[in-house]
Automatic annotation (TrEMBL):
Gene Ontology MF annotations: sodium:proton antiporter activity
Lineage of the species this protein comes from: Eukaryota, Viridiplantae, Streptophyta, Embryophyta, Tracheophyta
Organism in which the protein naturally occurs: Medicago truncatula
Localization per record: Cell membrane
Name of protein: Putative cation/H+ exchanger, cation/H+ exchanger, CPA1 family
GO terms of biological process kind: potassium ion transport
Matches recorded under InterPro entries: Cation/H_exchanger_CPA1, Cation/H_exchanger_TM
Keywords, in A-Z order: Cell membrane, Ion transport, Membrane, Potassium, Potassium transport, Sodium, Sodium transport, Transmembrane, Transmembrane helix, Transport
Length: 220
């Protein structure tokens, strides 16, 4: 007979597995998908608006509008009983595309300010900012997970650690490394979601979830 804690742990692991299986589709939609959306919107703005904008300015606004937020779509899919895989892909893509959109926006913003990029420089910039941010996020995730191993049954310290590391990871990426802080924070959060859900059990897990749900709601 399984106790409630064991069933809860198995449920958390079961929720992670679909995300891992769909990661390729999420990356495809959030990466090339956002770039194509930026190009499409930028072209539409350039050809439609009578403001005489340059291509750089049009693509800058296109990058700002390129990310989608499918909250209503996901809610509708759940009401219609759509597959969990489809909902997982859309939700995961919506998390990733914000970071990608900021990287694309930063590129065109620097172009508008007068910096010049050839195709090789653009590819190098996107790779450096994106992969560097992801690497920083994962590195902080690994460090904090190892740190959590030295904390025993102290919910306040555990939650404080996750909050502090989140801010330090963002500052390190955005200010020190000059890469995308949002993308680093997203990578840090996804690493936590995949590898530390089962580290918080029982009341500690509930407190952890309630804190971050409340924190997120206070920002919205």
């Amino acid at each position: 007979m399984e106790d409630e804690e064991t069933r809860s742990t198995k449920l958390e692991v079961a929720m992670i597995k679909p995300c891992r299986r769909c990661i390729a589709q999420m990356i495809l939609l959030a990466g090339p998908g956002v770039v194509l959306s930026t190009i499409f919107l930028g072209t539409l703005l350039k050809l439609t608006f009578p403001y005489g904008w340059s291509w750089k300015t049009s693509l800058l606004l296109g990058g700002l509008l390129g990310a989608s937020d499918p909250v209503a779509v996901v809610a509708l899919l759940k009401e219609l009983g759509a597959s969990k895989k489809l909902s997982t892909i859309i939700e995961g893509e919506s998390v990733m595309n914000d970071g990608v959109a900021i990287v694309v926006y930063t590129l065109f913003y620097r172009m508008v300010l007068g910096e010049t990029f050839n195709w090789l420089a653009i590819i190098k910039f996107l790779a450096q900012v994106s992969l560097g941010a992801v690497g920083i996020g994962i590195a902080f995730g690994i460090a904090s997970v190892l740190w959590l191993g030295f904390i025993f049954n102290d919910t306040v310290i555990e939650i404080s650690l996750t909050l502090a590391v989140s801010y330090v990871a963002y500052y390190t990426a955005q200010v020190s490394a000059e890469v995308s802080g949002v993308l680093a924070l997203m990578s840090f959060g996804m690493f936590y979601s995949a590898f530390t859900r089962t580290a918080f059990k029982g009341e500690r897990q509930q407190s952890f979830h309630y804190f971050w749900y409340t924190f997120y709601a206070s920002l919205c």
